[in-house]
Amino acid sequence: MMLVINFSLIGAFYSIAPIIPLFAEEIHGQEQANLAVGIFIVPVIIFRPISGYLSDRYGYKFIGLISVGLMVLSFVGYALVETGDQMVLCRVFHGIAYGMSIPPVSGYLTRIVPATRSAEGHSYFSAVGNLGMTLLSGTSLYMADHGQLMLVFFAGIGLTSLAFILLAFVRRVEVVVHETGEISAVGLEEHMKMRDVIKVILPFASIMASVTVYTAAVTTYIQPFSKEIGLEGHDWMYLMVNSIVIMFARMLIGKKVDRSERLLFVTISLGCFAVGVICLSMGNGPFFFYLAAIANGLGLSCLTACVFSLAIQFVPESRKALASAIFYTIYDFGACLSALGGVMGETFGYRLTWLLMSPCFAVAYVLAFRHLRRTPPPLVESKHHIEKTKIEA
Fold first, then answer.
1. What burial class does residue 201 get, using C-beta atoms within 10 Å of its C-beta: 0-12 exposed, 13-18 middle, 19+ buried?
2. Is the dihedral of CA 145, 340, 49, 108 positive or negative?
């Protein structure tokens, strides 16, 4: 049930993200297009930690129902927008709702999946989200190209309403589900202070934020970029290919990450991103266009699976939702900076823009090398803690 909820929320979000430039043109609000893309992340950053704190305090289900209800209203708002200013206001409201909806959902996941399978569990969860991203981003671009923007908004209303109904039937998490003999948070205080949670999460989230500057910019501005290189109409197919690769790669990679050195996967990830940047910046024709979609999808799959699952296991159960919220809040700073991709693309052209964004990967690798190279896989770490505890007992 939580997988369907995640599919609905992520799918609804990605049905809107790639069509903002087209939507702005239709309502004659081109001047507000970049503002609408960038301002969305501001309320997300503000309200996501608040939602995480409230979810840990008052329950995932209660906060989740409130936030998903706001998501439904935000899509109703999109259907009623008539001017650029109204579009910006609707994006702010949508940002509040979306920011509040993710912590209770992801927090619920971290409470029911054991630490030794955290990367695998998160990979399946993310894969379902990527299925929503695949279907809805591509479908919304196809509808927008054929003048059916209103259908996109109605689909968003339907998906978020479905998530709300399903969430109403989700059972409350009273206890944490563990595998036999597993010890998930040895030595951690049950009530870790917020500043300590931030200190633990910051380096891992910064890795993702650095890469997201590039990945979010490509996703958001793929439509004008495809026009620039003479592949107009291929934008929705790029998103389809990219999302399908992410979905299947995450399911295959999850188990291996739980049993392997994470720095290896980060290295593979950034190598894939390098291929993607080269293809988008220097390649010509559909072959290199779709090769970039595959390479970027593989890069994101390898990176996300190992970074998030590792960060979350270093906080106690009573701070899982807050930790998840902080992780994605920092992560979203990268998405906020992706609005620079639109400005740079209009100024220098999108081909050069992707090259100018490549230093983001160097920053991510430096952070990963510093914080991941000495970290054992969760399976090894858990066994070590179990043996240590048996000896002490």
1. buried
2. positive
**Distance between CA atoms of residues 341 and 224, nearest Å:** 11
Q: Which amino acid is at 314?
A: F
Angstrom distance (rounded) from CA 127 to CA 145: 27
Alpha-carbon distances, residue 29 vs 16, 46, 95, 140, 211 (angstroms): 16, 26, 19, 19, 29
pLDDT in tens, 88-112: 999 999 999 998 988 888 777 777 6
Average pLDDT, the chain: 80
At the second CATH level, the architecture of 2-173+188-392 is Up-down Bundle (1.20)
- What's the CA gap between 313 and 29, in Å, rounded? 44
* pLDDT average, residue stretch 294-321: 80
How would you label 322-336 residue by residue, b for 16+ Cβ within 10 Å and e otherwise? bbbbbbbbbbbbbbb
Cα 182 from Cα 173, distance rounded (Å): 19
Place of tokens 């003999």: 181
Given a contact cutoff of 8 angstroms between Cβ atoms, the answer to whether 10 and 129 are in contact is yes
In the chain, the amino acid numbered 6 is N
User: Cα 18 from chain centroid?
Assistant: 15
- Residue spans of the domains in the chain: they are 2-173+188-392
Tell me the C-alpha distance between 300 and 331, whole Å: 13
pLDDT exceeds 90 at position 13: no
What residues contact residue 210 under an 8 Å CB cut-off, 6+ apart?
Answer: 334, 360, 361, 363, 364, 367
